[in-house]
Amino acid sequence: MPKHFLMCRPEHFTVEYAINPWMHPEADTDRDLAIRQWEGLKTAYEDLGHRVSLIDPIEGLPDMVFAANGALVAGGRVYGARFAFAERAAEGPAYLRWFAERGYPVKEPAHVNEGEGDFLALDEVILAGTGFRTDLAAHQEAQEFTGRPVVSLTLTDPRYYHLDTALFPLDGRNVAYYPGAFSRGSREVLARMFPDAVLANDADAEVLGLNAVSDGTHVVINSEAGDLQLELKRRGYEPIPVELSELRKAGGGPKCCTLEIRGENTK
Ligand code: ARG
Question: Most CB within 10 Å of its CB: which of 29, 65, 166, 267?
């Protein structure tokens, strides 16, 4: 089944503030390289037969390339983002407008949440991260709006500040994750829900290898995550390695650049 993704070209990408431990404003960033690497990701999706829509980048919003944070889309309903940091606040309404203009049913959020950075939808449940960015109250709000059960998971390592930096769905029923990013209770929940999960090691996590996008067959993944790619192959998946080193300077990888539009517009 082809997927539909929303992406935002990193035309204004730079690291000018630090809101996660990956970001070092004093270090150099190469915008042209970031754009080339991002084009490589977009092409990888298109070569796999997926559809990519684009939202216009806005000057002064250097992190807008991280489209995953723009909203949560489930069953064609769009739950808007409300960012934890002022630096990104304007992205929420910009993404919500994109969907509203195309006729999607949208919900303005009352609570802080960073879209698919912290909400990952499976067939029956939505996994939701909290601890750094998204409020627990937003998990409840998302459940009420989407009508899907939301399972809260607590992140404890500041390097893995969004759920999508520590876990990705392999398909609608199983996941890959890095146990070290989660609280003890959340590790138990994950082990109970996903006894066959793919577990990633420290080295895979440290190159944002968990920030991957699977279509159930292919896994678009940071090229440096070597062990995880081997394990995915062993499990019958085909890794599609991409190079996104420039965007990693902002703490982002393939999934961060990708908002999945699940369920077509029902209106
Ligand atoms: N610099 C961005 C931030 O800290 C990176 C966001 C990455 N996005 C993601 N879905 N993990 O908010």
Answer: 166
pTM above 0.90, yes or no: yes
Whether residue 111 lies in the annotated active site: no
Which atom of ligand 1 lies closest to the CA of 252? 7
Q: Is 260 helix (H, G, I), strand (E, B) or coil?
A: strand
Pick the CATH number of 4-260 from 3.30.40.10, 3.75.10.10, 3.40.50.150, 3.40.710.10: 3.75.10.10
Is residue 162 flagged as an active site residue? yes
- Spatial CA neighbour of 200 closest among 189, 186, 211: 211
Query: Can you tell me whether residue 259 is helix, strand or coil?
Result: strand
Could you identify the atom of ligand 1 that is nearest to the CA of residue 250? Answer: 1
Q: Where are the domains of the chain?
A: 4-260
Closest Cα to atom 7 of ligand 1:
252
Return per-residue pLDDT of the chain as tens, 267 residues.
899 999 999 999 999 999 999 999 999 999 999 999 999 999 999 999 999 999 999 999 999 999 999 999 999 999 999 999 999 999 999 999 999 999 999 999 999 999 999 999 999 999 999 999 999 999 999 999 999 999 999 999 999 999 999 999 999 999 999 999 999 999 999 999 999 999 999 999 999 999 999 999 999 999 999 999 999 999 999 999 999 999 999 999 999 999 999 987 654
